[in-house]
Specification:
By secondary structure, this protein is α/β, with parallel strands linked by helices. Helices cover about 50% and strands about 20% of the residues. The protein is elongated. It starts with a helix and ends with a helix.
Amino acid sequence: MSSELKMIIDQVCREKGLNRDVLIAALEEAIKSAVKKRYGVRLDLEVNFNNAQGEIEVFQYRTAVEEVDDKELEISLEEAKELDSKCELDDCIGTRMDISSLGRIAAQSARQVIIQKMKTAERDLIYEEFKDRKGEIVNGIIQRYERGNVIINLGRTEAILPTSEQISSESYRRGDRLRAYIIDVKDTQREPQIVLSRTHPEFLIKLFELEVPEISDGIVQIMGVSREPGSRSKIAVSSSESDVDPVGACVGMRGSRVQAVVQELRGEKIDIVPWSPDPAKYIYNALAPAECSRVIVDDSSQSLEVIVPDDQLSLAIGRQGQNVRLAAKLLCWRIDVRSETRYQHYQDPDYYSLLEISAMTDMTENIADKIYDLGVTSLELLAQADPDELTQETNLSTELISSLVEEAKKLIEKKETKKEDAIAEETDTGEETGTEKEDLPEIEEKAEDHESQSNSEQNVLDTLGDSTR
């Protein structure tokens, strides 16, 4: 039995990867708990595993007294001297207990404590192993589904691939081998929760590090990544050595390196572009294969206006705006892509007047371009245009053209009304100011007449006075 216990301990430690001392400590605590439940919780016990004999030893410690009042903690001096002749009063003496008579309940209790301690030790061991592995790629086998989440067996433990971190275009089957990126390791009460991802941009970087030796050696650096998982990605690279082509290093011989990454991502397209410190050059590379005619950089607002040939506009924007959206994520700048024709239209101030009615109608830049190209280059000309002729030449609906013409007329009337009101207001202000100025000469003239009349009366009085004298 002794050798069997030792063999079981060694086997469990080997299979679970547990520390032998941790398991033995858990076993000793379990036996101690079982003995107290069987014989009394107040017992002073010491439990040790005898490695040489491969068995558990339990010792009960009691104090030698003249008269025993508490059998669990005290022993008579006479009985103590029988065990140890040198024992004196108040000495503590230990006696070995026979645990072979432990009941079934006590044995089950010991078993539960051992299992719990083993789980705790195993959980701590797994957490210590994975807590520093955030940002690494792991391989596992798909075990099962739980509420849409994929549970992946990593060998010693299981990891979870949440629905939010799964590529929507991928399908996962039980038993398939899968690579994923560790984004978090949580220390929970039950077991460490290892959270994986296949959509994280860092997952793409790690895959390239595995496939491209120049990246792992530090010769080629990945300067930026933008992803739409399962569809398309862009990755910007640069080289610290002039004789190493960063794009060529990532592509590999006949595309072998990048194809390995594409296969792992199950067909996700990857654009590898050269990085540049110049935003204009950088966006020129990022929008490839589309060609750029002109790039206007606004450093203050971190925005770019990219002008492309008319036949390159759809290529630059991409399907549903994907190409320009990924380029904007790569640069972290706002990007406006315009065709050369539209850019020329924007140079004409009258073109903006056509867009003024966009808030009130279905006017768009595309419709404005069509109308402008037909010679209707301002809001006034649109208001004077014949809706039937415009409908035939633009191939737009009669209702739309009619609404545009009507709104143009209304907008012009509003502008003219505002202009007339402004002129009338200025005129009223001027008239009031002129009236005040005209009143002043009249007041001065009356004052002069009054002064003249006073002088005449004084002259008459002086004349009468002289005649009297």
